């Protein structure tokens, strides 16, 4: 087989012949004034015959002064590799978009598997997985105070997860968003996989170690986390998840709310720095234009903003209590006032409603004909009290 090499040069000899790398080599000079005007930094494609078995690239101008010099210059200036029929810009671009890996790694993978895109993609992911686990082990002791809260809901079921990272810069990365979304959807699928959980009340907190074993397709959340660590170079930890559901009857509802939402997140999973789940029951079915989703969102917004500790009791003012209070001394008034103030600050039903300061939460739910049952609040990076 003859390898034809077209190069740019200014030598007197127009053509030189010899052997190199087991091939018959013909080096032909292309004068500067001809159609080929490549710059020194550009690659010139070199081919041999109609179906070459070798692909070569010229790294600099080859000056050919005589036959032997031309072939020896060729050996110093060229690099050989197996020709990949489909390793074109389009195929490399396709593999890069699908996997997100570098040009060099994608080309290496295609060369290794002779242009088999499926095998190349599989190999790239395996290599990235190995590198990710190595980085995860190395970075596992680093503090993770940033991150996101993810909320996924389907009917009367919902899950809320927290995934932490080291910096806010990584927390804004789309790959990190994808991981948090996968964790939230995986936990919701885990709830749906247990019918006994979906038929009654469920409120269960799961730790990160438990969540890492959940399956996502043919892999686990632990492997996906390691892969993300390898891509982003920071320690990432799945911290916790709350499984939440109410009996699937028309009067039971779950409201969800995420504060400081991440732009571009899908409706099935919302991401943000704060999240809340609120369970409530519709007591009066005579109200028209009842919007459970909007009411749940407003209650969740109050939970995030006011941070109540308990649901509490519905505030009621009785006439005998007012008379007794008037007869008591100043000291007793101060003590009772202090106690009431503490209850108003920590009990949700006694708190001033965040979206309407003219009424309490208890008065608002009474007007809407609902009963507040329970709530859960997540704040990303919060320190839990022991």
From TrEMBL:
GO cellular component annotations of the record: mitochondrion
Gene3D superfamilies, sorted: DNA helicase RuvA subunit, C-terminal domain (1.10.8.10), Elongation factor Ts, dimerisation domain (3.30.479.20)
Comp. bias regions, Basic and acidic residues: 315-328
Entry GO MF terms: translation elongation factor activity
Keyword annotations: Elongation factor, Mitochondrion, Protein biosynthesis
InterPro entries given in the database record: EF-Ts_dimer_sf (IPR036402), Transl_elong_EFTs/EF1B (IPR001816), Transl_elong_EFTs/EF1B_dimer (IPR014039), Transl_elong_Ts_CS (IPR018101), UBA-like_sf (IPR009060)
Compartments, as annotated in UniProt: Mitochondrion
Protein origin, superkingdom: Eukaryota
PANTHER family, A to Z: ELONGATION FACTOR TS, ELONGATION FACTOR TS, MITOCHONDRIAL
HAMAP family with a match to the protein in the record: EF_Ts
Protein family membership: Belongs to the EF-Ts family.
Function: Associates with the EF-Tu.GDP complex and induces the exchange of GDP to GTP. It remains bound to the aminoacyl-tRNA.EF-Tu.GTP complex up to the GTP hydrolysis stage on the ribosome.
The protein's name: Elongation factor Ts, mitochondrial
Organism: Branchiostoma lanceolatum (Common lancelet)
Gene: TSFM
